[in-house]
Design goal:
Layout (H helix, E strand, L loop, with lengths): L1 H60 L4 H13 L3 H14 L4 H13 L3 H14 L3 H14 L3 H14 L4 H13 L3 H14 L4 H12 L4 H17 L4 H13 L3 H14 L4 H13 L3 H14 L4 H13 L3 H22 L6 H15 L18
């Protein structure tokens, strides 16, 4: 009996100590949390004070700069002190007559803070003051486009071309904006007006064509082909343009069309080794290895001692599993790289060294030693 009483008393004593300790820990935890929260509030206040001080110092340093007052207005708006914010916005506007950019900026700010009526009011005020109304209407339209208010954007885009209906650049910019979000008919209407206004400007047709080519739908591809063909027709002797169009189609996997433009580029100058190399690189980059080899072979036939062509051919032959051919062309590349480096007074420290390392790897990969290729007649194993 006494033993059980003793155990009970001991248990109660232990429990009371544990409970008291737990209560103390909880109390200390709550106190620590309160202190932490108080520190956060203090830090926030200190940050706001520092920011306010910096903004006021900026105004003192440059009292005629409206941006300082605008920034202070934004600061007070974020503190929910709208009246004070508006006072600073108005102060900023009062510093310069007809401050169109600032009206636009305040309009943007209000829109992003759910004050749509105020935003439109400031945009309209900017338009009243702006002489170049087409540019500003486009800018406002672009803002609404970014905010996904497409109906409002279309209204301002329409107003822009209403002011300058023969502005090809404006039509092109609006057309490409519509293209971004799949407004196909709107886009076609504007880009084709841009092309009509500037039929000889290949940059317009090329930019529009490549933009349409990015869309993964047949209707867009057809339009892209039409616009790019127009660009090529407008400047038929421009090798770079034909190459760029060919490359654009190649990247989309439309190989037959790309070949047409590459061929046209080469016909302009059949002796242009650099152009052959560019086309070869394009095919290699897009993993059309056999086409790349064919082009680099032509480059080598025109300039047999060109190390870059042999270098690329060596790497491509490796890709298609032809080790001896790869080694042959890499050895040629190293030989001609060394000739270049000797001429420059830096033998063995440029591309030749990089090719030497590749050759060592290929000897191991294909089961050869470098001395296997030092004996006369080894080339007969390939040709």
């Amino acid at each position: 009996m006494d033993g059980r009483v003793t155990k009970t008393i001991l248990f109660l004593l232990v429990w009371s100590v544990f409970f008291a300790g737990g209560t103390l820990l909880l109390k200390k935890g709550a106190e620590a949390e309160e202190i932490s929260e108080a520190k956060k509030i203090k830090n926030k206040r200190d940050t706001l004070r520092l920011r306010a001080r910096a903004l006021n110092e900026a105004i003192r340093d440059d009292p005629k700069n409206p941006d300082g007052y605008y920034d202070l207005g934004v600061f007070y708006w974020e503190l929910s002190r709208q009246k004070k914010a508006m006072a600073y916005f108005n102060k900023a506007l009062g510093l310069r007559n007809n401050n169109v950019p600032l009206y636009f900026k305040i309009g943007q700010f209000f829109w992003q803070h759910d004050r749509q009526r105020d935003a439109v009011s400031y945009f309209n005020k900017a338009l009243e003051l702006e002489k170049n109304k087409a540019s500003l209407n486009y800018k406002i339209g672009e803002f609404f486009w970014e905010e996904n208010y497409f109906d409002r954007a279309i209204k301002y885009f329409g107003a822009a071309v209403g002011v300058e209906s023969r502005n090809a650049v404006l039509h092109k910019k609006i057309g490409l904006r519509y293209l971004e979000n799949g407004f196909y008919l709107y886009s076609v209407r504007h880009v084709e007006e841009a092309i009509r206004l500037r039929p000889d400007d290949t940059d317009v047709s090329y930019e529009v064509g490549t933009a349409f080519l990015e869309k993964e739908y047949p209707a867009y591809y057809e339009k892209a082909a039409e616009y790019l063909a127009g660009a090529a027709q407008a400047d038929p002797e421009n090798t770079s343009l034909h190459f760029d169009i060919g490359f654009a189609f190649l990247e989309k996997g439309i190989v037959k069309v790309s070949e047409v433009y590459f061929s046209r580029a080469l016909k302009i100058d059949m002796q242009d080794v650099e152009l052959y190399k560019k086309i070869g690189f394009a095919y290699e980059e897009n993993e059309y290895f056999l086409r790349a080899l064919s082009i680099f072979e032509k480059a080598v036939s025109l300039q047999p001692e060109n190390p870059e062509s042999h270098h690329r051919m060596g790497l491509i032959f490796d890709q298609v599993g032809k080790g001896l051919d790869a080694i042959y062309h890499l050895r040629k590349a190293r030989e001609y790289y060394l000739d270049q480096e000797r001429y420059e007074g830096k033998p063995g420290i440029g591309n030749s060294e990089a090719v030497r390392k590749i050759l060592r790897r290929f000897y191991r990969k294909y089961g050869y030693k470098s001395e296997d290729f030092d004996t006369p007649g080894w080339i007969d194993k390939i040709f």
